[in-house]
Amino acid sequence: MWRVDLTWAHVPILDSNQINHLVSLCDSAEHVRSSSVQLAVESNVPFGVFPSYPVPHSLNYGAPLKDEEAFLFKHYVDHVALIMMPYDDQRNPWKSSYPAEALHSKSQEQRALLHAMIAQNLLMQAAKYYTLAIEELRSCMEGSPAEYASFIAAISTLMFVEIYSGHSATWRTHFNGAWAILKSREADEPWNLSEFAWASTQSLCLINILNESSIKYHEKAPLGQDQDQNLRLIHKTPSAFISSASSFGFTIGDTQLLMSCIIDINKLALDIQKEGDVDIIDKAVNDLYSRLEACRESQVKGMPNDENDSSTTSKEYRISWHHLNAFIAATHIYLHRTIFDLPPSNEIIKNYVGEVFENVEKFLDAGGGNLSLWPAFIAAVEANEAQHVDAARKWLDFAVSVGMGNRFKAKIIVEKAWSLREKLAKEAGTSCGDISVDWRDVMVNLDLDILLV
């Protein structure tokens, strides 16, 4: 009689890592034609019912694929590999040796191959669905889009695809198109149709406000060129929409009052370029000071009681509080640089730059997520003191780690502004802090056009 207790006597016991690895191989290698990852011809388990993989005798094997990786890897083998050759062939290396090598994942090079294959798969999928979205939008535009909110949201989302991929100019084509639709419907106030309509309109208006902060008056399109979708146009944000809800601005961590200040700084800058009335300009500046002070007082009243409170509610509040503080300080910088052209050595600029990065650091330390680009960027280009430059570099390193293409372009602009300031200071025989460099000029000279979101 066969002793049941001896059934598995000579089979090694697998730890959890080994089990996860084998399950991962089963999930992701079933269609890979390679002897190195095929199932064994003969079973090594008792009763010989199930095929098996050889059991690893050490931990020197690749880490198990995550579910998402396994799914994307299988899609690569089943679909992407087939179009890597003009016809199917059993010798197709992208269907055999490439995936077999990547699945080992023992070395850094093999992990790089795995990640590169997944990236190629994702890019092809992205291109496919991007094209579908464009075709569907074109079809909608042949008539009059019936679903305003979905139409605006779709165009805006394609715009963010361009922004996040680092295409520094093509995003504006989508933006100008979406804005044209908004303006054509403005009289009907379509944002009141639903919560979604309001949210999609808010996103577009916030983009417009931040976009205006990167455009000088002389860059405005000449009369008669409005049809060029790539022009850096200046659009007027509907005041009726801005006042439609007190929560305007919340999706970028800002407030209705502060966004209104940024709008008016943009407008004031245009008035100055057009040599507006000095008394009117002085009145506008004083009004901006009062409103910014109101923003600051509101923040002081709402200051978190305990920075060490680890409760979820308190943590979320601290994160949003520091983010808004950074925005307020950056708006002060934007006002004094845009209207008064103060250099980095000015105490006002220095103090607010320090305040921005103090709040950025606390935001990140508290576990904050993807910090809005505008406030930190506005401070970074004016950083001159050693500790401020270090803080700006630390933020830039974090920003590019998020993987969004416009962050990489922002870093290029910031570092170019620093180097240009240093070059001009040497030529003038003065300190860097005494040199004003307009980052908008730097951006244009670099042939870049980024959106600070």
Automatic annotation (TrEMBL):
Locations listed in the record? Nucleus
Q: Write out the entry's keywords from A to Z.
A: Nucleus
Report the protein name in the record: Uncharacterized protein
Q: List the InterPro entries.
A: Fun_TF
> Where is it chiefly localized?
nucleus
Q: What GO terms fall under cellular component here? A: nucleus
Give the species. Coleophoma crateriformis
- Superkingdom classification of source: Eukaryota
Keyword Nucleus assigned = yes
